Amino acid sequence: MESLIALLQANSVEAMVGLGLLAVASWAFLKKSSSTLKVKDQLPQSSEQSESSAHDIEDPEKLDVVEEAKAEEPLVEAKKESDRSIFFRGLQKSRALISSSLTAIFGGKIDAEALEQLEELLIYADVGDLSFEIVERLGKASKQGEQDLKGVLKERLIDLLGEDEPLRPPSHSPHVILVVGVNGSGKTTTIGKLAHRYQKEGKRVMVAAGDTFRAGAAEQLKVWAERSGAAFVEGEENADPSSVVYRAIDKARSTGVDVLICDTAGRLQANQPLMDELRKMVRVIQKQLPEAPHEGLLVLDSTIGQNALFQAEGFGATVELSGVVLTKLDGTAKGGVVFSIRKRLGIPVKMVGLGEGIEDLRDFNGAAFVDALIEDSPIE
Question: Does the pLDDT at position 5 exceed 60?
Answer without folding.
Answer: no
